[in-house]
Amino acid sequence: MNSTAVPRGASEPFRQLRALRRARKLKQEDVARKAGISREAYLRAESGQADPRMSTFLAACEALGLEVVLAPQHLAADVNAFIASRNGGVTAASMAGQPAGSAPAPAATPASGGSFGPGTGEGHKPV
Questions:
Q1: Coil, strand, or helix at residue 61?
Q2: Strand pairing of 66-70 and 108-112?
Q3: Contacts 24+ apart (CB under 8 A), 23-26
Q4: Among candidates 22, 41, 19, which has minimal Cα distance to 32?
C-alpha cells in the first residue's frame, strides 16, 4: 500500500477527509483536537476500522473547514462542478483523486464553503 492509499474499509466521506487533511499537511491528532474527539476515534473512522457516528463526521468536517451539503443524487455532479468553479477547480472529491462529478453521488457531500448564492432562501442552507 502506498502512502496515499486509503484502507479498504474507509468510507468515501472519510477518504475525502483524509485526502484533505493530508493536502493541508495536518496530523490526525490536529483534526481530532479541533473536532473535540479523541485521536483514536478519528484514526478508527479515517482508517475504516469503525463506523463513526454522524456527529464525529460533522465535527471532523467542521475542524477541516468544510460544510456538509445535502443534495439530490441526480444533482450531485452539478453541485460538485459549481463548487469547483468557485474554488479554483478543487472539491473534496478531487482532493481524493477523483475529478469533480465523477464520483458516485453521496447523500452528503463535504463542500468547501456552504453558500450557493442567491435563490437558496434567506438563512437556509440548500437541501
A1: helix
A2: antiparallel
A3: 23/95, 24/64, 26/64
A4: 41
What is the distance between the alpha carbons of residues 47 and 91, in angstroms, rounded to a whole number? Answer: 21
Q: Is 19 helix (H, G, I), strand (E, B) or coil?
A: helix
- Residue 10 backbone zone (phi > 0: left; psi -120 to 50: alpha; other: beta): beta
At residue 96 the predicted structure's pLDDT band, cuts being 50, 70 and 90, is: low
pTM, rounded to two decimals: 0.64
Domains and CATH numbers, the chain: 12-112 (1.10.260.40)
Nearest CA among 84, 8, 9, 26 for reference residue 17:
26
Closest CA to 83 of 58, 48, 125, 111: 111
- pLDDT tens by residue, 3-29: 445 455 557 788 889 999 999 999 999
